Amino acid sequence: MGPRCESNTCRRRFQSSTHRTSRGDVRRTMTPMGKPPITITCECGETKSVAYGQRWVCDRCHRAWNTQQIPAEEYEGLLRRVRRHKLEVVAMGAIAAAVLIPLIVVVSSGFVILIPAAMMTWLFLVLPVWRRRYRRTAREAPRWELHPE
Ligand SMILES: [Zn+2]
Q1: What are the start-end ranges of the H helices in 31-71?
Q2: Short-list 112, 114, 143, 148, CA closest to 39
Q3: pLDDT for 82 beyond 60
């Protein structure tokens, strides 16, 4: 076996990322992408979506709102529900692949014709149901009373 530079760079990249995530402050700045934003409605009627932990100063009346006033455990609960929905979709995809791939590889390549049907089922049956449930979770998200700073 010759020198494998590709796996080397991979490993190096992996190490640096685990090193980075082990430091709490950097991890916080790295993750807000996947987190549901918090919509703040100002007393003057302005609204704005911000990430949890962020501070927002209203453009119109200059009141300052701080999402850190939201108890961390309540926000974590919301995150858990959102994450569970995402896991459901991943799990359904994995199950479909776990059924289809062995059929095609082991039984017969003719089962490839099932893939369009599976994708149609996915698009028109699974995703709409899932989206509705996801939206309901978003609607049932708790409301918090913040106090301007
Ligand atoms: Zn305002």
Answers
A1: none
A2: 143
A3: yes
Separation between Cα atoms, residue 17 and residue 105, nearest integer Å: 36
CA of 147 relative to ligand 1 center, distance in Å: 12
pLDDT of 17 strictly over 80: no
Question: Structure tokens of 135?
Answer: 């939206």
User: CA-CA distances (angstroms) from residue 69 to 35, 48, 52, 127?
Assistant: 17, 16, 10, 35
Q: How far is the CA of 65 from the centre of ligand 1 (A)?
A: 9
Phi, psi at residue 35, to the nearest 5°? -95, 145
- Is the CA virtual torsion 98, 103, 105, 111 positive or negative? negative
Average pLDDT over residues 124-131: 89
Q: pLDDT at residue 56 above 90?
A: yes
**pLDDT value at residue 29:** 40
